[in-house]
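Side project, low priority. Logging it here so it doesn't get lost.
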Amino acid sequence: MAAHMFQNLRILQFAFAEISVKIIPVLTTFVMAKYLPIYEFGRLALYVVTIELFFVAISNNASAVYRVQYFKKPSRMRAQLAQSAIQNSLLISLVIVAGLLISENTGIYLGLIVVALFRAITVVLLANFQCQRIASMYLWVNLAFVFIFVLSLWGFSVSGISILAWLKAMLVASLLQMLLAGVSSASRSVVHTKKVLPAVNKYMFLAGISFMPQAIGWWAKSGADRFQIEFLYGSSVLALYSLSYQFAALVILAANILNLAYVPDLNHSLKLKDRTKVRSVLQQNLILVGLISLIAIMAGWVILNNYYSEYETANIVFIEILASTTFFSASLLYINVYYFFLKQIKVAVVIAISALAQLLIAFLIGASTNIYVYSLAAIFVNILTFGYVYIDTRRLLNND
């Protein structure tokens, strides 16, 4: 009984850490939208997804590779794997910086690259805490980022909220979080100063590349549309879209929390081939996602109309985005069945096709219309994606 309670506490600590570090950027975005001019907020939204893109490239999926190899490689190799991942991230960062210098397009992007690099190093170190099941350290390192970011943003915004204040706060919080994770990891011999074997560097780089199609697919699904909207309509319209998307981000976060809570039960039922229980678990969580989306729509409508009058034209886009996100979140629930049956390649293909189809259709119809019509493309594609995933996972369950 005590062991079971301790395991549940550990799961709660991991979950709370993930929730905290993801919800704070969403909440601070609402604050930034309230005080920044609409055009400036549109630029900020673009910088946020740019960091995500840099992170995908710089991290090279090292944390995912590390989590897989942690239990396969001998313990003496784990420090080599972690240090190799960090070295690869530094090298990739230098290549990106060199490209910016050649194109003479540096400015704020250098700061965004540094933030992405700090995050890339941190997630590798956090992956080690996950594998060792050191939930308390994982929690405190993430909470440290949250508190430092909030305090730094407040401190740098004394003379007024700005994009520069936000970037400085991100740099300070990311740096201190990385240092805290590094000091904690060093005490557990996760990182050291010995030379990494070339074969290990090569393996970590190539293994990370193998995850890249899936990583890019997820980024394209959740972030590439910002670049497209900026290109088609400009920063002011992007600001309307981005503020609306924050409510959708809360729905996606809720879906991820449900994943943390129900995946063990789902996998246990899949292992026992209890199809009735599997369908029941999926349907219950599908209903919960629908209810969360309805609550988000009602709350968002009140908030937008009472506190963001300058964004009043975002009301329609906001409902469209939430409708689209509801189907996307539903797909995330059923995709867990693919993972149980080791269908990771199918996940990558489905997400990539869905993202590309959404961007292509949105561009074709959005170029000659407006943001309201543009947003309908995401609803259409996400309905089709959910329909396919729903039918295909049922087929897998019936054939198992």
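Brief comment: Residues 229-399 form one domain.
Revisit when time allows.
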